[in-house]
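W.,

You were right to be curious about this one. When I first looked at the sequence I had no strong expectations either way, so I just let the prediction run and decided to look at it fresh. Below is the sequence, 728 residues in total, followed by the output.
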Amino acid sequence: MKDQVFSVLQAIGRSFMLPVAILPIAGLLLGIGASFTNATTIQTYGLEGALGDGTLLHSLLTVMSSAGNVIFGNLPIIFAVGVAIGMAKQEKEVAALAAMISFFVMHASTNAVLKLSGQILPDGSIADSVLEGTIADVCGILSLQEGVFGGIIVGLGVAWLHNRYHKIVLPNALSFFGGSRFIPIVSTVVYMFVGIAMCFVWPVVQNGIFALGGLVTGTGYIGTLIFGIIKRALIPFGLHHVFYLPFWQTGVGGSMMIDGNLVQGGQNIFFAQLASPNVTHFSADATRYFSGEFIFMIFGLPGAALAMYRTAKPEKKKVAGGLLLSAALTSMLTGITEPIEFSFLFVAPLLFYVQVILAGAAYMIAHMLNIAVGLTFSGGLLDLFIFGILQGEDKTNWMYIIPVGVVYFFLYYFIFTFLIKKFDFKTPGREDDDTETKLFTKADVNARKAAAKGGDSDGAPVVDALSQTIARALGSKKNITAVDCCATRLRCSVADSSLVNDALLKATGAVGVIKKGTGVQVVYGPQVAVIKANLETYLETAPDVEAEEEAPMQAPEPQTITATEEAPEAAPANPENPAEKTYFNSPFTGELHPITDAPDEAFAGKMTGDGFFVYPTENTVYAPADGEVTFVFDTKHAIGMTTADGVEYLLHIGIDTVKLNGQGFTVFVEDGQEVKQGDKLMEFDDEFIKQNAPSDACLCIFTDMDAIPEVHTVTTGQVKALDKAVWF
């Protein structure tokens, strides 16, 4: 149960990152725009001529301010859609649409109940008996002021409905509304009732939020210290987003009336004050949840990096110095601390405990000094410049950050130096001679946890043995430099191709392995897209070297038919009795050849199936028979088809055209579409393919090798689309 709760919280934290990722650009637009259109700032720096009212720059900056402000003003619906996308496991676009619809339905339902109860009057005004700020405009709808919490409630609920019902099968009469189409329908119904319920539930929840916020703010500087310690301590678990977001975006972080509007959440209060011309000093009570980050991100952690460099072995100082300098600059400029924090967390947890205490104290010190510098995402130099220096000392007290930061630099340096030497911690540059000097990441931490628990990084047992075996056959994760696929092949780049184990790859179900330099192509057939996706997921948390299994997976050696071998006899077909033959038409116009002449050894060796190919003289592909489109490859160069009689085949345009990323192809069909013989499937730019790919050969491959072991050409040479091409 503990692992399940942890896994769910981790997933929720990850889902928050999608909407949070928009905040930096919104903050920059609002910060720059509001700063340089503020009359006081313009007068202070003597910029009336360039930035005064009526100038072109003033107009542009006003637009920038409005563009940034609209994002902060609509964060609830952004979170509703973003969380739904983050938590949905498949067909995320459906979850996004359902979340947006549900958000509007919920607030419209709440609005209707508020009108019926007399809290919103017939003329659209709010009754005098309603507590100020509890009803607000939400995307044009007067509803309860739920803030980001309302969006999160929608996002999580819709994602749950989506994951549970997106494959639902309804009775035949209603089958059109089954599957993913059911999600917006059920979400609409559910959130109509949620909107009604919120009128009775939310006031109680709101009182609880204000009480919790009052508990934190009521404990003063000690509350700030506790907040900072908890936030930094949650970093290794990926749960810090779940913890700090309510303080940044909801009433838990406090509330304030600004220009007649009730604003909730520390970050929202700061940006509302930033946009207001009437604020003389930003609220340090609001910025207490992030102002301290500038102290340890710009000054403290670089001091830790210097300590690790100075204590590195002489022969490893050069390598360690380059890595640590890069990590320190990343922390200073962007506020991204993972490269430094996860390195000493991984090799010396005691250093991380010190970091947690010092960082928590930095939040408290900033609060005590009335430092009120805002940020969009993390406390780097860019945010300090825009939201501190540009706003002026009178509004922010940003200058206090420098002396405190200098003290923090030396604190980190001397404490880390002492502890590293005393306990001989293997920080970067102090590793054993046979260990590579590197900076660790969250993936390394998760992989170590997984190895210790015998499961994956979320606590679930490892079940993807296929991906593990493929990775080991390719020389391990450390040897794999890139993973991609085309319609039938897993395409990998490796550092050393001599480490690739062909036999083990074939044991995973591959029908062929092709190595060209550092490129490895593993032929799996049309299911390769799933294999590639699973392998990428596995590699995210896999160790650099996969452990050998006690009983390696075995599979019978697949039969590979090469161009020089005799193919097995096709039992059903009888050349003397045409009635027993099944004829298949050409989808292409051009010069037809047997598959054994294909300009690619995998296709010519029939590794993906028998068939034929055409050097095209026309640029259109037609459906050779009635049937269904089983898949259209993302890069548009290949289409999987199934005839009405159940014959599976693949249309593949050109050789290695997956690398064109869809350029030169126009597809007129989609997955699951029924087609008739002669329907146009695709057009392609033959000249572009000739110039940018090894060959423009258009292949038709029958992928079910058990059902169709051999294909015979009716004729060779010129053929027109829909002419009989082969029989089997």
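Here's what jumped out at me. The chain has 26 helices and 22 strands. And, maybe more interesting for your project: The longest strand covers residues 648-655.

Coffee later to discuss?

I.
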